[in-house]
Design brief:
There is one protein chain. This protein has 13 helices and 17 strands. It is α/β, with parallel strands linked by helices and 363 residues long. The strands form 4 sheets. A 6-stranded mixed beta sheet has the order 5-4-1-3-2-13.
C-alpha cells in the first residue's frame, strides 16, 4: 500500500448521510441511529490516490467521525473535540503528516487550535483556500449574470466567522456597497471599524438576516449554522448566492421555487493528476472542496505545519495558498448549483426569468 502523506476528517452532515452509509439502520428511529453511531470510533473510510503535479505525487485518506452537524453543536464540546482529536491520531498512525478538518470539525470550539495542540502532526481547516475559490467563483458568477460587482449590493452572511471576516476584508477592496450579517453586532461593529481603517469603505452591519438578504444582489453565505438561513421568499430576482457553508445556508426550497436566482456551491476545486477520492460527494471526478484541496496543496509543498487555524484568517495567507494552488495546477471547478453542473443555457434562463420578474415587481 502506498504511503499516506495527508488525511482529511469528515463527518455526516445529517441523519440521512448516516443511513446512506449504514443501511441496516433505516428501520430504526432517527434518535437511535444517532446514538448508535455516536459510539463508533473514528475510522479510515476511503483512500485518496493520484494527486499529482509537476512537483510531486501524494496519497491520502479520509477519516470519518460519526457525529452529525447537529450533534457537533449540541453535545458537550469536550466530547466532539475528543472524537476529532482521536480521528487526527488515527490519521497520524496511518502515516499522515498533515490533517485537514472538514465541515463542523473546522468550526466548533476554537476552530482547530485545541485539536492542533493535541496532535503531533500539522493541522489546517482549509479555510484560506476556501475563501480564495469562493471569491473567484462569485466574481465569475457575477460576470455571467451581467452584474457589476463594484455597483452591486453585496452581503456576507456569517461575517464574524473566520471565513466570513476575511471574505468581507477582501471584498471591501473591490466593492462599494457591503453589508455584514451576524448575530453578534458588537463584533460586527469592531470588524467594520477595522475595514474602514484598512480600505476606507464604510460597511453596514446588521443581525437581521431576512432584511439584509432581501436587498442584496450578491450574497456570500458562510455561516456556521446547523440549519438553513436563506429561504425562497428572502431573495430578490437575479440575486447570486455563493453558499460556502456546510450544512448549506440556502434552503433546498430555493432550488425548487426560485428559478430566477443563481445559487452556486462555493469552494469547489479541480484536483491535478488522476485523483480518485473514492468517497461519493456527488461531484464530477477529480473534484473536491477547497478545504480538502488546501490540505493536499500543503502536502505537495511539504509544508507540514499548522496553516489555517482559529477564528481570524489572514488576507496574506489567502493570497499565499492561492499562489501555491496555481503552482501545482489546482483550479476553480466549473460552477455547480445544488450538486448539478451549471451550463451557459441554464444561466441564460435564470437571467431571463430574473429580468421578467424584475419588470413584473418593478425592481
Amino acid at each position: 500500500m502506498k504511503e499516506i502523506e495527508f488525511a482529511f476528517i469528515v463527518h455526516p452532515l445529517n441523519t440521512s448521510d448516516i443511513l446512506q452509509k449504514f443501511r441496516f439502520m433505516k428501520s430504526l428511529p432517527e434518535s437511535w441511529a444517532k446514538m448508535i453511531v455516536r459510539a463508533f470510533p473514528p475510522a479510515i473510510i476511503s483512500r485518496i490516490s493520484g494527486v499529482s503535479s509537476p512537483y510531486g505525487n501524494i496519497n491520502g485518506c479520509f477519516v470519518g467521525v460519526f457525529l452529525t452537524s447537529q450533534q457537533m453543536l449540541e453535545l458537550p464540546l469536550k466530547i466532539a473535540l475528543h472524537k476529532i482529536i482521536a480521528a487526527g491520531k488515527k490519521a497520524a498512525r496511518a502515516g499522515a503528516k498533515i490533517v485537514g478538518l472538514g465541515a463542523m470539525a473546522a468550526v466548533i470550539g476554537d476552530a482547530g487550535i485545541t485539536v492542533a495542540r493535541n496532535l503531533d502532526i500539522a493541522v489546517t481547516t482549509g479555510n484560506s483556500y476556501t475563501v480564495a475559490t469562493a471569491l473567484e467563483g462569485t466574481k465569475k458568477a457575477a460576470h455571467l449574470m451581467d452584474i457589476d460587482i463594484r455597483k452591486a449590493e453585496v452581503a456576507v452572511l456569517g461575517a464574524t466567522g473566520s471565513i466570513g471576516a476575511v471574505c468581507a476584508r477582501i471584498l471591501a477592496r473591490e466593492v462599494n456597497f457591503l453589508t455584514m450579517i451576524a448575530r453578534n453586532v458588537p463584533r460586527l461593529e469592531r470588524l467594520a471599524e477595522e475595514i474602514l481603517a484598512e480600505t476606507g469603505l464604510a460597511v453596514k452591519v446588521t443581525s437581521n438576516v431576512k432584511e439584509a438578504i432581501k436587498k442584496a444582489d450578491i450574497i456570500m453565505a458562510v455561516s456556521g449554522s446547523a440549519e438553513s438561513l436563506i429561504d425562497p421568499e428572502d431573495l430578490k430576482p437575479g440575486a447570486i448566492i455563493c453558499d460556502v457553508a456546510r450544512p448549506r445556508d440556502v434552503s433546498l426550497e430555493v432550488a425548487e421555487k426560485r428559478d430566477d436566482v443563481l445559487v452556486i456551491e462555493g469552494g469547489l476545486v479541480e484536483i491535478p493528476g488522476d485523483a480518485a477520492l473514492n468517497l461519493g460527494f456527488g461531484f464530477p471526478p477529480k473534484t473536491a472542496y477547497a478545504c480538502m484541496a488546501e490540505t493536499m496543496i500543503l502536502a505537495l509543498e511539504k509544508r507540514y505545519e499548522n496553516f489555517t487555524l482559529g477564528r481570524k484568517l489572514d488576507v496574506m495567507q489567502v493570497d499565499e495558498i492561492n499562489a501555491m494552488a496555481a503552482k501545482h495546477g489546482f483550479k476553480l471547478s466549473s460552477l455547480r448549483s445544488f450538486e448539478r453542473p451549471l451550463n451557459p443555457e441554464a444561466i441564460e434562463k435564470i437571467k431571463e426569468k430574473a429580468r421578467l420578474n424584475k419588470q413584473k415587481h418593478n425592481f
